[in-house]
Amino acid sequence: MSNVLLTPHGHLIVKDDLHRARWERGAAGEWYLRGIWPDGEERVRLVEHLSAKRGMVVIIDQVDVALSVLSNEIIGAAPLEEGANKSPIIDVPVPALDWLPTDYCDFAKRFRHDLVSRMSHVPIALRPPVAVSDLMPGMENFYVAVRLSPISLADTAIIELADHLLLQKKTQNSSGLWKGLLAKFHGGRPIPGEQHALPAH
Fold it and tell me: Which of 27, 49, 58, 151 is surrounded by the most beta carbons within 10 Å?
């Protein structure tokens, strides 16, 4: 499954999570980890996309994740010696946002850090599925969406969210933090500790 989606309006969605793993099937039908998205050529295209001010929404988790794989599933990994006191399972880091240009990466990391800190006192059952960043000067077509609950969002919902955000193209103040949160999960009730209500759909 690809970690990159394109909306009907040409906006790019990046699922910056374990979907970044690139797998390759061997001759005998076995699967091997070929690498972690993006490669060098893909990085260049992503930078070009942002430089052209074309729309992008990045979906990330609250913390960085790691991919647990068997050592023999990694292409080029040395086989374990018989009797060696080593685990056959290897955790491959998938550091979120490391593929973004520095200013975009720093902005996204700050947003996630501040958001996670604010939401730490909110019960999981009361959290919306995602929270979306405000627009920043110079990044008018770039949003970060952080998953806040175990509720999984289908690709169709993510695409709808991206087009909704990028087509309105309005600079928001701090009250814009919760836009696009699929507020139907809360029935328009305010988030505990916040002064504004979620927009109703």
Answer: 58
Chain center to CA of 149: 13
Q: Which residues contact 149 (CB under 8 A, 6 or more apart)?
A: 124, 127, 128, 129
- Mean pLDDT, to the nearest integer, of 63-73? 87
Measured torsion, CA atoms of residues 11, 96, 23, 158, in degrees rounded to the nearest 10: -30
Give the type of residue at 90. I
- The DSSP line for the chain is --SEEE-TTS-EEEEESGGGEEEEE-TTS-EEEEEES--HHHHHHHHHHHHTT--EEEEE-SS-EEEEEEGGGBTTPPPPPTT-S--SEEEEEE-TTTTS-HHHHHHHHHHHHHHHHHHTTS-GGGS-SEEEPPPBTTBTTEEEEEE-SSPPPPHHHHHHHHHHHHHH-----GGGGGTTS-GGGTTTPBPTT-SSBPPP-
The per-residue pLDDT for 77 is 53
Q: Are the C-beta atoms of 140 and 11 separated by less than 8 Å?
A: no
| pLDDT tens digit sequence for 147-187 | 998 778 899 999 999 999 998 764 443 334 334 333 333 33
- Per-residue pLDDT band for 201 (boundaries 50, 70, 90) equals very low
